[in-house]
Design goal:
By secondary structure, the chain is of the alpha/beta class. It is built from 8 helices and 11 strands. 35% of the residues lie in helices and 26% in strands. The strands form 2 sheets. Strands 4, 5, 6, 7, 8, 9, 10 and 11 form an 8-stranded mixed sheet that branches. It has a 3-stranded antiparallel sheet with strand order 1-2-3, with no helix packed on it. The radius of gyration is 25 Å and the shape is globular. The N and C termini lie far apart (68 Å). The chain binds S-adenosylmethionine (SAM).
């Protein structure tokens, strides 16, 4: 014979509360065990050089205006940043299809165009049409035929799927206002064995005379690359001011 246990209503409420408490504990411990994927944007009070928007624990920088294009073409850049060493590290080969994302005035696009030759191509991509106007004037004056200017959006590089052998971003990634969306579109545009190179001013070095929001540490670059589904290949440390981080999709 079974005995039926009658509990007073206050006891029933107490037992319901205890069950609810244990359910909440199980849910909390399950979510704590999940990987720390943080594909969301946050907000902070806007700092000097920052955008007020955060991603992966970093305040995204504000976009460098086309009014500053002259700084990208300054003569001292050759000694301060050693573009010759960067071009050597990029290993551009004749016939390659290269995308210079955030090309600005086309300082690197122009130099890459001569290295990929007439069978190769450089897509010079920028979100500011004024930057592409400056680039267009330069390539017309120089008679360069293998650069195609591409106007991107804040979220999309506007390049065809599986079309790019090598994509470079020189001093650009830190100022993408939508890094998740831009990198997703860029990963689609890379060929299956395509490479992406991020060049960023070294945050670890206080002697690099650049606004803190426009610098990145190697650890932060690697952390964000992993969040975005990119594989780190190697970091080249031959440049005086910048990290050169090679990634694969
Ligand atoms: C600091 S400049 C670097 C220009 C060039 N890479 C160089 O080293 O001479 C950054 C450039 O990135 C561009 N940019 C920022 N966000 C972008 C985006 N979402 N898509 C394409 N270009 C972007 C800006 O318009 C600007 O021309």
């Amino acid at each position: 014979m079974h005995k039926q246990i009658f509990l007073p209503s206050s006891m029933k409420n107490l037992s319901r509360l205890i069950i609810l408490f244990f359910c909440a504990m199980i849910v909390a411990s399950a979510s704590a065990a999940e990987p720390a994927v943080n594909l969301v944007y946050g907000k902070v009070e806007k700092n000097n050089g920052g955008s007020g928007k955060t991603f992966a624990g970093r305040e995204i920088a504000s976009v460098m205006s086309w009014h500053g294009a002259g700084w990208l073409e300054r003569a001292e850049r050759k000694t301060e940043e050693r573009p010759d060493l960067l071009l050597q590290a990029l290993e551009p080969k004749p016939g390659m299809v290269i995308a210079d994302i955030g090309t600005g005035s086309g300082y690197y696009a122009r130099q890459l165009a001569t290295r990929v030759g007439t069978n190769g191509k450089v897509f010079a991509v920028d979100v500011q049409p004024q930057m592409l106007d400056i680039l267009n004037k330069q390539i017309q004056a120089m008679g360069i035929k293998n650069i195609t200017p591409v106007l991107s959006t804040e979220r999309d590089v506007n390049l065809a799927k599986d079309s790019i052998d090598l994509a470079i971003m020189v001093d650009v990634y830190h100022e993408l206002q939508y890094p998740i969306e831009v990198m997703t579109s860029l990963i689609k545009a890379l060929k299956p064995d395509g490479q992406l190179v991020l060049v960023e001013f070294r945050a670890e070095d206080p002697n690099v005379p650049i606004n803190a929001h426009h610098k990145m540490s190697q650890a932060q670059i690697k952390k964000e690359a992993a969040l975005l589904g990119l594989t780190w290949v190697k970091t080249i440390s031959t440049l005086p001011w910048q990290h050169v981080v090679i990634l694969r999709k």
